[in-house]
Amino acid sequence: MLTSMRQLVLASLIAFPLTTIAASPSSSLFVSPKKDLVFSLNVPNDTSSSDLFFSLAFPVSPSWVAVGLGASTMGGNPLVLMAYPSASGDSVTISPRRSYGHSEPVYDSGINVTALPGTGLFNDTTYVFEGVCSNCRSWSHNGKIDISSAAQEMVYAIGPSAGTASNNPRESLKVHESYGSFTMDLVHATGAGGVPVIPTVKDITSVGAAQKLAKSGYKDNKAILHAVFMILAFVGIWPFGILVLRVGGSPRWHAINQTVSFGLVLVGAILGFVISTSYNRSKKFNTPHQVIGILVFVFVIIQLGLGFLHHRIYKKTQQPTKIAPVHVWLGRLVILLGVVNGFTGFPLALSPGYDFALLGVVSFVLLSFLAILFIEPWARAQPEVQQPPAGYIVGDPQTPVRMGVPPQGARQFV
């Protein structure tokens, strides 16, 4: 009966508005500004124990939540308790991780966290994890929490909307959408050991915890710029450079256009390298997107060199060079690989839905490109209509005369 009551209490945590109430004397409670994360901690007063009991609750909308113990920033070596829905969606996967700077925390199998009764999805609205960690008071690289501190530093982070559901504690995740820091009174949290019950009351507020930093609406702008620059280069500007040469007949503007494209690719590649070091799924640089991307970047540099050499030799000899066909076909291959690689990038970023938008853009550009190449020769083949010079009148087509006194029956040209 007690367990049922506890589940009922926890299930209504975020589903209904709550009111201020003191947390259990043997626990401290932190509530995030938007009430999309509640974390309660108990420190057993048994001197022979190194356990920490905790409860963590969040609504179904975030893809994941996390609390970092023992630091005020992700770069401060916190021990991270990360939680997200299980693959079935009816329970919670807890993933104890270590943070190494401002990048996705890495799963640490040496941190022993055990789920206890009361863990699961309640009322289809709220995920709750109740558990105990047997070695969360200290960790490698001098990481620790001070159980005698009345203001122990902590951090938290909340992922974007739902999208993660996995039983894998090593699951790679999207970057947080909101984050912040707080302090927790561990003296207040010390008492008889046991899972702290999160109270169900209206307008729940933190007890024994104080908010410090709070940020929301965070986006990985580097990843966004990487995608924009690469798509703009390979789907837009680079194909346009072909039209500049074939339709416009301007080697000079072709060279300028392709140099601008190279600049976008260079910046995009640098951003891609930086992004790759931020996520566990890409740190080894062995995904198809990264392998193809590195290959394409090498080809782009070769292509730029071939274009320069071809133009230099042609200016001296005014004759076709052996480099020209290599330059042409390598350019086509680079554009094709660059476009295909765009479709592997969004799944790597855990945003496969954007592939449909990219497909629409590529289809539009391809159809426009083919239409221009088809219409241009036809337009060139049309005879030009000769217009009489300004200041003349049309009479005898063989004998145009100056405006003044027009011959009999002459018609003025407008």
UniProtKB/TrEMBL annotation:
The membrane spanning regions, by residue number, are 223-247, 259-279, 291-309, 329-350, 356-375
UniProt subcellular location: Membrane
Give the chief site where it resides: membrane
Listed GO CC annotations: membrane
Residues in the signal sequence: 1-23
Q: Which InterPro entries match?
A: Cellobiose_DH-like_cyt, Cyt_b561/ferric_Rdtase_TM, DOMON_domain
| Coiled coil segments of this chain | none
What CDD domains is this protein classified in? Answer: CDH_like_cytochrome, Cyt_b561_FRRS1_like
- In what residue span(s) does the Cytochrome b561 domain sit? 186-383
Q: Which SMART domains match?
A: B561, DoH
Keyword list (alphabetical) reads: Electron transport, Membrane, Signal, Transmembrane, Transmembrane helix, Transport
What is the protein name given in its UniProt record?
Cytochrome b561 domain-containing protein
Q: Which organism is it from?
A: Xylaria grammica
